[in-house]
Structure formats: structure tokens, C-alpha cells
Amino acid sequence: MKEKFYYHRDRENKPRVTVCVMESDVGNPIVQGVALCSWKDNPRKATGRAIARGRALKALYHLESNDRILRDEAISVLTECDGIDQVLCYKSAYLR
């Protein structure tokens, strides 16, 4: 299983969203975990990676998506970051 991390940054180049994608050995995405940093917090890459990895593992363990993203603040973080080309609906997503 391979892990890939993606960071989406705000206008000040701070990593507000961390996405962990776990892929099978043939490169097919299996699960995705998302960590969202509040506007009140100071983003730390290591913390975002740990949270996103944990959420990806949760989806892998349960074989289902969990933790739907509902808060307006989380949506605003997602929409104001560069590089997000699709709307992420779950913090812990099973992609298969």
C-alpha cells in the first residue's frame, strides 16, 4: 500500500487542507483521508499528515466513507485553497 499526501494552501501559502490517498500496489486509489485546519489554528504539516493518515486508515478498516464535511468553515477552507478540483464530501472516504 502506497501513501501520497497533497497539500492545499490558502492565500498566505499555509497548508490548510491535507489529503492522504492510499493506493494499491498497481496505483488504484483505495481510501482518502482529509484534515482541515481551522482559520483559528496555525497550520502544522505534521499534524495534518497524522490526522489525514488516521482518517484514511479508518476508511480502510471500516470499508466505508465516514465523517461527512458539513461545517461552513470547513467548506470555506476547501473553497479558498489552491488545487482543489473536486468537492471533497467526506473526511474519511472509501473510494472502491
In this structure, how is the largest beta sheet organized? 5 strands, antiparallel
> What number of domains?
1
What's the pLDDT, averaged over the residues?
83
Note the run of SSEs as H and E: EEEHEHE
Query: Distance between the terminal alpha carbons, to the nearest Å?
Result: 14 Å
Largest sheet: spatial strand order: 1-2-3-5-4
Rg from alpha-carbon coordinates: 13 Å
* Shape descriptor: globular
Helix-residue proportion = 25-40%
Structural class: alpha+beta
Number of helices in the DSSP assignment: 2
Q: Which stretches of 5+ consecutive residues score pLDDT under 50?
A: none
Number of strands: 5
Taken as a percent bin, the fraction of beta residues is 25-35%
Task: Explain the overall architecture.
- This protein has 96 residues and is of the alpha+beta class.
- The protein has one domain.
- It is built from two helices and five strands.
- The protein has a five-stranded antiparallel β-sheet.
- The radius of gyration is 13 Å and the shape is globular.
- The model has no long low-confidence stretch (mean pLDDT 83).
